[in-house]
Each structure stands twice: as C-alpha cells, then as structure tokens.
Amino acid sequence: MIRTARTCRWRTGTVRARRPRRLAAASRPWRRGLRRDRARRNHIISKASGRTVTPSDAAGVSIPTSLGAAVDSLQYVVTLGLGTPAVQQTVLIDTGSDLSWVQCKPCDSTACYPQKDPLFDPSASSTYAPVPCGADACKALADGYGAGCTNNTGTPLCQYGIEYGNLDTTVGVYSTETLTLRPGVAVRNFSFGCGLRQRGRFDKFDGLLGLGGAPESLVSQTAGTYGGAFSYCLPPGNSTTGFLALGAPSNNTAGFLFTPLHSSPEGPTFYVVTLTGISVAGKRLDIPPVVFSPGMIIDSGTVVTGLPDTAYAALRTAFRSAMSAYPLLPPSEDLDTCYNLTGFSNVTVPTVSLTFDGGVTIDLDVPTGFCWKAASRSSEGARVRPESLAT
User: Fold this and answer.
1) Annotated catalytic residue 299
2) Which residues form the signal peptide (predicted)?
C-alpha cells in the first residue's frame, strides 16, 4: 500500500506551475531537467537484507528533504553523513534507482563533475572497505552493474558501472561504509558505489541515494530494522523542508488516503500505482481504462509527470478549452500548453485531478501567482511524482 498525506500537496502533475519572472533565472536547470526527464522516462519504460542499524530504532528515523536549489537542481536531496568520522554528503533521493553512490577521491576535474561538498575521501575514514572480488556481493553486482571483479588498476577490485537513461554514467569501486542517517543513528557496512569516473550532465549533488526495491537499495539494506518501509514528503519550494522516513507508519491513519502499490514486471526496482482517471474542472475525461493498464511508475528522480499519448491529448484538450480566455504561447521544448498572463489581475485555472485505484483522488496544487504549462507526454507507459508516499 501507499499512503498520501493531505497536508503535503502534490507539486507536479501533467501540468507544471512556474513563476514567469523566475523562469529566466531558472531556465538552465529547468531545460536541463526536461531533457534529462525525457531520456530517463524512455529508459524506465524500455526496462519497464543484512545490515546492522544502531541503535535499534524500529519506530523509524526521519531525515529532512529539500529542493535541490543549493546544488543547481530541480530534484530533491537529503544530507547524510558518510564515513568515520562522518563527512557531509548531499545526495539526490531516487526511488527509480537501487545502488547508492557518491564521488570519491582520487578523482580530478577530468573524471568527476563539480559538486556542493568536498569529495569523499575513503582513506580518511576508519570504517571504509572495498568489497572483496571474491565476495558473493560482488558476484551478484556483476549481473546488473557492470564488470564485477576487475584488476584494471593492478589491484583486484569489485567494480560497479551504471548508465542512466540520459546516458549519464558513473563507474567506481563497490564498497562498504558507515552511513549516518542522523546523529546517533548509523547504518554500518552500508554497500554503495565509490564513484571514480562520472560522465554526463549531473547537477552539483554529491551522489545519489537509491530507494528502489532491489537488494542494493537503502530500503532493502535496512529492511531488518525498518521492515522495508519508507515514506517521503517533498516540499513545494525552497522555503520549506520535507522528510524521508524509514520505518513503518504508525497505526494512526487519520488524514491519509490509500491506494495499492504494485511491483513492476520489469524488475524489483520500480514501484507502481494504478491511475484510473483524470478530471479537469470536475469533469471526468473520456479516457479508455486500458490506457492506464500498464500502471504509473513512482519516480522521485523525475521532475515532470509523463502520461500515455491518449491520456495526455485528452487532458491537454480539456485544459486548453477551460483556459481559452487566455493567450496560448508557442511551444517551448516539450512544453506545449503555456500561457501569457501579463495584464490579467485575476486568473481562473481549472482544477486538475488524478484518481487512483481505490477511489483516491488528488487535486493538483495551483499556487497563487503561478501559470500552468503542460508537461511532455510519453509514448507509452507513465510516471508519477507524488509529494508524499509510504511503502
């Protein structure tokens, strides 16, 4: 099951809000994010526990989340401690990935991209250890993350390699380390990638925290303590913070709505929910149920939600009809439903609602002073990025 908090609003839907005056300043990460989204969506669609946590904290542990403005990103990040002594690392949270990684020394500007915090130095930590080549973990890693055991450097190392949908890549040494979630709560022998060579258009985050369903993810590695359950709330802007929480929710379900959570036939990484309908201005759109049958992949690493062509076309038509009083701007990038609201003191934006299996309906938020832009559509399948989920 997943649950959605009413008090933590959905920020991204098939239509996207932005402040017109801020677009120029934010256009570079926004456009970069759209290009990355497009590649990532196509990649996901094409594919479509044994760690000790101290002290015992079965009730759960919570970490603040924030919008990645400090790392020049439209994605969401958390700050964790890595190593002994712990050093701060600001990492992207990603429900569509499993293996966590950070950039590590020795790594110069030709092999690593500029990041917010200093590079993690394994030699300065008393608890860092590379995974031995003969270990079962290394053999298992080779199936999904590249070469496994290699001695390209003259010393046998367990190597990982990841290529993301936008062709960004990270390669390095599969390792274990102490991961500090918050003061006094640490995951010992946490398996992660020590990145020594990164290529692509990464933002300035220090690495990535994998929250998918496969064995390599943080969720799976801490399942013995937290039961494989986690929740997160993504804040609507830079002025507020949300949370990433490990552990089962309390028995108090007041204020929450529930819809079934499914695994993906493409593998254990992805979490899937079933969208059953879309409404504009309170009117249900005439979209055949079969359009939604593949399900919606929940992907926190994607900025804009994608829909199948049929569903997107129906939503766009209804939204444009309801906004016919306002001038439509020419398409820009993948955004084809944008309006010039200059000179309008009062703007009426139609409510856009998503309905999920179990009758759960979510109204997409329309912050005051924002105009809406329709997001890029996908050729098949779909993704959704909710503000608050618990698995």
Assistant:
1) yes
2) none
Q: What is the pTM of this model?
A: 0.79
| Same domain flag for 219 and 261 | no
Q: Do 7 and 120 lie in a common domain? A: no
Strand partners, 15: 374
Q: Is 292 exposed, middle or buried (0-12, 13-18, 19+ CB in 10 A)?
A: buried
Q: Are residues 282 and 146 in the same domain?
A: no
* Distance between CA atoms of residues 298 and 94, nearest Å: 10
Whether 15 maps to a domain, the answer reads yes
Q: Is 334 annotated in the active site?
A: no
- Written as six digits, the tokens of 147 are 């070469």
Q: Report the CATH number that the domain containing residue 351 is assigned in CATH.
A: 2.40.70.10
Catalytic residue among 37, 117, 203, 299: 299
Cα distance between residue 99 and residue 278, in whole Å:
34
Structure tokens at 330: 């020419």
Pick the catalytic residue from 94, 98, 117, 206: 94
Q: Percent of the chain beyond pLDDT 90? A: 47
- For the chain, how long is the longest CA-to-CA vector? 68
Same domain membership, residue 181 and residue 95: yes
Please report whether residue 12 resides in a domain. yes
